[in-house]
Specification:
heterodimer, A: Rossmann fold, 11 helices, 9 strands, 38% helix
């Protein structure tokens, strides 16, 4: 089990993560849902010890990440951005990580085959497409055959087959009794992949619930999520007297909601409605 | 699903040897590492030969002449040291590195050891090749210096050491500054520009500038500005200070 307790992080005056506490259990896919900038990546970076929390802690199987004996053999991590040198081949990249983790070289060939990069393993990783780069990141995460998988926005840049592949992979890992924690700002993807959901907004916990339970609260999971984030945003700023926070827009078809000015925070609206299609060009240019 | 290639929850803990092996694979798998070292060695040897060809009489320090190409090559060693750290930040590799070896002090120790060993091997090889090539290129019946003359072997060996120590200073600077252009600017400024400036204005201080220590104290067989061993000690001190500050910041800062 992963225990997140009172996790808090400031970047200068900005409070990125605000006393976040939740548990992640094995055997199910736990989704980590929130708008862009809601603190998902910061939380995941603190989980693996890259960023130091101002307060609180994360324990993985009872120990902080920094105290794991063989971190890559316990926790496989895919963070949102690329984490390899473009001048190095995919194989050399994985060989280095394997050497640092006491993992045999044969395992490198196994994961290269698993993610379908065995044919291009000698090519410099800088020449990879976004989808291939993402698969190299997934290969690195799977290298240690870890008990815990932490994926930050894993479907970025993947084609539909790739998206289905990673979804199947995560579900099968969970079915084996491992811990799978996957962040996304894509509600539809979470609806297909996750069993449980941790929802955050502005760095704070908005919901810790089963996907089915959250969907049942509104006409769709998307509506339920947007209500949650709207309520969370209002709670953070001044509560408006004329509109009680969290009131469900029970009437109207899904999608009519975002036009209601003020009900949805612009960041969340922009993120879910318009930001995503621009990702590939942003990343490949 | 996936083959279980490694036992779940294996006992034990990563150590220095795993960190060092990881760093060695990282260093050797970049073509830029080998290009930089090869070009540096070739240039240092070429300069030694050029100086040898243009030597008219045997009155100068022929050993120091043959090693004249070491000092310009120090820049490449320093830049390579800088890049060993800053390129990890540029490309996000630092996240994969620290996820594998979360003990940052151990990681920097391994990185400095592996890089320092490669730089030392390159520096020594370059110094010996340049020394013999420079000696062989002497004309006008000038006898080539030989390693059994007083102070000559020491000068050649210490030149190679200087190469490695300037490289480690670059590595420390890289850990402190983290951004490639800024770190290289500070390196060039600190090693070369300040040396020129101090050399013109304040001659006594010149002896303590890193590049001058290598060129005028360590790579000489006679009349060094400082005792060669004091020079070596000073360079070790500079590198150690930069590495300790870099390590302290690496531990403190978010990656």
């Amino acid at each position: 089990m992963i225990e997140v307790r009172g996790l808090t992080k400031h970047y200068g005056p900005v409070l990125a993560v605000d006393s976040l506490s939740f548990d992640i259990r094995p055997g199910v896919v736990t989704g980590f849902l929130g708008a862009n900038g809601s603190g998902k990546s910061t939380t995941m970076r603190m989980m693996v010890g890259l960023d130091r929390p101002d307060a609180g802690m994360v324990r993985i199987g009872g120990r902080p990440y920094g105290e794991l004996g063989w971190p890559l053999r316990k926790v496989g991590t895919l963070l949102e951005a690329k984490a390899f040198h473009p001048g190095r081949s995919a194989r050399a990249h994985l060989m280095a990580l394997a050497a640092g983790s006491g993992i045999p070289a044969s395992r490198v060939e196994d994961v290269l085959g698993l993610v379908g990069l065995d044919g291009v393993a000698r090519r410099r990783a800088g020449t990879f497409s976004l989808g291939m780069a993402q698969r190299l990141g997934i290969a690195a995460a799977l290298l240690g055959d870890p008990e815990v998988l932490l994926f930050d926005e894993p479907v970025n840049g993947l084609d539909p087959e790739g998206i289905r592949w990673i979804r199947t992979l995560m579900r099968s890992f969970a079915a084996e009794g491992r811990i799978v924690f996957v962040s996304s700002h894509l509600i539809s993807e979470m609806a297909l992949t996750a069993d449980r959901l941790i929802v955050i907004g502005a760095g704070r916990l908005l919901a810790d619930t089963a996907v089915a339970e959250l969907s049942a609260r509104s006409v769709s999971l998307e509506d339920a999520f947007l209500e949650l984030t709207a309520a969370g945003a209002e709670h953070g700023s001044a509560v408006r007297a004329d509109r009680p926070g969290g009131e469900p827009p029970s009437s109207g078809p899904p999608g009519s909601g975002p036009s209601g000015r003020g009900l949805y925070p612009p960041a969340a609206n922009g993120a879910t409605a318009t930001r995503h299609p621009s990702y590939p060009t942003e990343w490949t240019s | 699903m996936t083959a279980i290639a490694t036992p779940r929850n294996p006992a034990g803990h990563y150590r220095f040897s795993q960190a060092a092996r990881m760093e060695w694979i990282k260093l050797r798998s970049l073509r830029s590492t080998w290009w930089t070292l090869a070009v540096t060695a070739a240039a240092a040897t070429g300069i030694g030969i050029a100086v040898g060809l243009n030597t008219r009489n045997a009155s100068g320090d022929l050993t120091n002449n043959a090693l004249a190409g070491i000092a310009p090559g120090l820049l490449a060693a320093g830049v390579l040291g800088v890049l060993a750290v800053t390129s990890e930040y540029t490309f996000g590799m630092i996240r994969a590195t620290l996820a594998t070896i979360p003990d940052r002090r151990l990681l920097l120790t391994a990185k400095a050891t592996v890089f320092g060993a490669l730089a030392l091997a390159t520096g020594e090889a370059t110094a010996f090749v340049a020394f013999f090539a420079g000696g062989a290129s002497l004309r006008h019946g000038i006898p080539a210096p030989s390693l059994d003359q007083p102070g000559v072997l020491q000068a050649v060996v210490l030149s190679g050491t200087g190469f490695a120590l300037i490289g480690l200073m670059g590595l420390g600077l890289g850990a402190i500054i983290r951004h490639t252009p800024a770190a290289i600017a500070v390196l060039v400024g600190g090693v070369y520009v300040v040396a020129q400036f101090i050399g013109g204005v304040w001659r006594t201080l010149m002896a303590y500038v890193p590049i001058s220590i290598v060129a005028n104290s360590m790579a000489t067989s006679r009349n060094p500005m400082l005792s060669p061993w004091i020079g070596l000690g000073l360079l070790c001190l500079y590198a150690a200070v930069l590495l300790v500050i870099g390590g302290w910041l690496l531990i403190r800062r978010d990656a």
